[in-house]
Prior knowledge:
- The chain is an alpha+beta fold.
- It folds into 3 domains: 3-157, no CATH class; 170-237; 253-371, Histidine kinase-like ATPase, C-terminal domain (Heat Shock Protein 90).
- Helix content is 66%, strand content 10%.
- It has helices at 3-29, 38-55, 60-73, 78-92, 94-111, 120-202, 209-237, 256-265, 283-302, 339-350; strands at 269-275, 307-315, 319-327, 354-359, 364-371.
- Strands 1-2-3-5-4 form a 5-stranded mixed sheet, with helices on one face.
- Helix 6 packs antiparallel against helix 7 (209-237) and helix 6 (120-202) packs parallel to helix 10 (339-350).
- It is elongated.
- This is histidine kinase.
- One of its GO terms (molecular function) is kinase activity.
- InterPro entries: HATPase_C_sf (IPR036890), Sensor_HK_TwoCompSys (IPR050482), Sig_transdc_His_kin_sub3_dim/P (IPR011712).
- Keywords: ATP-binding, Kinase, Membrane, Nucleotide-binding, Phosphoprotein, Transferase, Transmembrane, Transmembrane helix, Two-component regulatory system.
Amino acid sequence: xxxxxxxxxxxxxxxxxxxxxxxxxxxxxxxxxxxxxxxxxxxxxxxxxxxxxxxxxxxxxxxxxxxxxxxxxxxxxxxxxxxxxxxxxxxxxxxxxxxxxxxxxxxxxxxxxxxxxxxxxxxxxxxxxxxxxxxxxxxxxxxxxxxxxxxxxxxxxxxxxxxxxxxxxxxxxxxxxxxxxxxxxxxxxxxxxxxxxxxxxxxxxxxxxxxxxxxxxxxxxxxxxxxxxxxxxxxxxxxxxxxxxxxxxxxxxxxxxxxxxxxxxxxxxxxxxxxxxxxxxxxxxxxxxxxxxxxxxxxxxxxxxxxxxxxxxxxxxxxxxxxxxxxxxxxxxxxxxxxxxxxxxxxxxxxxxxxxxxxxxxxxxxxxxxxxxxx
Length: 375
């Protein structure tokens, strides 16, 4: 059985039990008053239960009117009548709830009046019944407001999750564009060298006709590849959020010292340790530069005034490793969405590396990455 079915069954059972209790109290407390035979009470209760199950969600106003009329004559239906009135207020709002309340009030004031005119007992009974109906209407309206609040909070949570997902996708997209621009510069340089060497082979003295023709084909293909690369990078750089520094040479390991000095001039405390050979690691060096740059930026934003330890090492056989560590902020830092770290993970994953970040047992935040050495 579904959750809704269990809820409806439970509410029906509680309403029936309340009605039977009310019938027992009425018969015990007022033995002189004439009541309908018990078989009529039970028959009316069964009919009310069937109406309640059938119309509770689809026709709550009609249900409240029908069960309310039956409940005035049969005390055993009082619980179902109360639940139906709460359902009108919670599902149809205040206007319909007070309309049903007015109908119930008219029935109570007209049917409970004695032949000799209104008495004190009559007014007391009518006041109690009307106050009970008002309490039921108020409870239904509060339930309606609670449901609306829950739906609003769920929608806000869904929108927040969707916004975070879009921010993550945007960060990945921007990082891939930046990687494409960097790869363009490297590939363009290598293809240009290929075209130059092919041109030299084409005009080399003593080359056979087949060699000259093959060198010419290689040179033409290299030029075509360069043109295709220019078109691709032109599309990327034509985007509204394109990097204005895309045409500049991409920094690498050689520029790490300047990057650290720039952070120190900005007021950061940076301890920089580098143990690297003189070989060029190729694009891995550019990725290390970006990782250190993002790590120092995050430290300035989220832990201002904290000392940052930067360690870079590795070699052709071991790969490149980089680690940045800083303690927690002494004063409150700026909030962030984590888009920079998402971009770093995208960058490292694309080159087959590993990256991890988080808090250590000593209370420091650590960003650590490893990249393969590929000259």
